[in-house]
Amino acid sequence: MTEIVLAGEPVLRTPCRPVLDDELGSPEIAELVATMTTALREAPGVGLAANQIGSSMAVAVVEDRAEYQQVLAPERLAAQEREPIDLHVLVNPELEPVGDEQVEWFEGCLSLPALTAIVPRWRSVRVRTLTSTGEVEVLEATGWHARILQHEIDHLHGRMYVDRMHSRSLMTSEQYLARWRDVPIAECKALLGI
Ligand code: ZN
Description:
CATH superfamily: Peptide deformylase
Structural class: alpha+beta
CATH topology: Peptide Deformylase
Bound molecules: zinc ion
CATH architecture: Alpha-Beta Complex
Largest sheet: 5 strands, antiparallel
Number of domains: 1
Distance between the termini: 39 Å
Radius of gyration: 16 Å
CATH class: Alpha Beta
Number of strands: 8
Shape: globular
């Protein structure tokens, strides 16, 4: 089992280096992507950046399977604009917001286990990325997919959600599931003094 690097390791705070032209399509990149995909599914999670398994390359994988969403109420999925996302790979991605609307939801991270906090994110983003073989792709994403992309691309820049969260909302996942998961975010913020 591939170990996920936990907060406290400097690699999570170090910007990843771009994948070079002659590395695109190489067996090394294919192996890295395969290892990351396995680690993501084992965790399980919806996104993983290469530095979360100790690699310094600007590579991330994203996948939000329908089975992960079955535990959530349809109204919550609709509010979060969350739909299944097929596995896709980001290589040297560049992100820009689309519009200026921000949305707030609780968010977690495999490198900060058993914790969660409210994190403001752009509602919509555009990401220019390469595939693992070097083809250019431009993704437009809204809602939960946009949030995952912002979270993973932050990792590639050495940033984590705790840098952007409302710090007063940080709590254990256990507390979140026990008493906050069905509380509207505006009410959570009021109760937490945000
Ligand atoms: Zn993370």
